[in-house]
Write a structure and sequence with these properties.
- It is built from 4 helices and 10 strands.
- By secondary structure, the chain is an alpha/beta fold.
- It has a single domain, classed as Lysozyme-like (3-Layer(aba) Sandwich), CATH 3.40.80.10.
- The strands form 3 sheets. It has a 6-stranded mixed sheet with strand order 1-5-4-9-3-10. Strands 2-6 form a two-stranded antiparallel ribbon. A two-stranded antiparallel sheet has the order 7-8.
- Helix 2 crosses helix 4.
- The radius of gyration is 16 Å and the shape is globular.
- Bound molecules: zinc ion.
- The site of zinc ion has 4 residues, from loops.
């Protein structure tokens, strides 16, 4: 699979917020954003299925409601889940898009940012394939900073936060293994170039 978006290629979204350079896998776990809502927040998540294992297709299957819940004991806990994210960045930096940015993906759950509940209404959700105690890969940081930079150009993004920031006590991802300094430095460099 090759949809590595690093390397300085200009990223392009269409009207609906579909990223030209991403692998498209359509999820029905989404709906319309509220009328007139702006996209002002990026939420970073981490996921691995089964937990701690990388490289399979279980995340894709979970987000498209095609996961065989008998295939692993942990999957039984996911049986009734209807979730998605706009993007998944795999360990090799491949970017998969499940939901156009113009639609509301179901990634944040009960959440609050800057006094507002329901962050799915106004955010884009990005999942990193990973865990909270294993370093994310260079390819993932490159793809993430390119993607977030492109989102800043396309939408009135005001902040980038962790899922744990908007659902404290309930969520801990992307965890201590995520290097915020590295992402913020790359975004600053990106902004000075513009
Ligand atoms: Zn999360």
């Amino acid at each position: 699979m090759s949809a590595n978006i690093s390397g300085g290629r200009k990223l392009k979204f269409d009207r609906e917020g579909v990223l030209e350079q991403a692998i498209q896998v359509s999820s029905s776990n989404c709906d319309e954003r509220p009328d007139g809502e702006s996209i002002t927040l990026v939420v970073i998540h981490a996921i691995s299925l089964p937990p701690g294992e990388f490289g399979g297709d279980a995340i894709r299957r979970l987000f498209t409601n095609t996961l065989d819940c008998t295939a692993h004991p942990y999957f039984e806990t996911l049986r009734e889940l209807r979730v998605s994210a706009h993007f998944l960045i795999a360990r090799g930096g491949e970017v998969v898009q499940f939901v156009p940015c113009g639609k509301r993906a179901w990634h944040a759950g009960a959440s609050r940012y800057d006094g507002r509940d329901g962050c799915n209404d106004f955010s884009v959700g990005i999942e990193l394939e990973g865990t909270e105690d294993v370093a994310y890969t260079d390819a993932q940081y490159e793809a993430l900073t390119a993607l977030v930079g492109a989102l800043y150009e396309r939408y009135p993004i005001a902040d980038v936060v962790a899922h744990s920031d908007i659902a404290p006590g309930r969520k801990t991802d992307p965890g201590p293994s995520f290097d915020w300094g590295r992402v913020r430095a790359a975004l600053r460099r990106d902004q000075t170039r513009r």
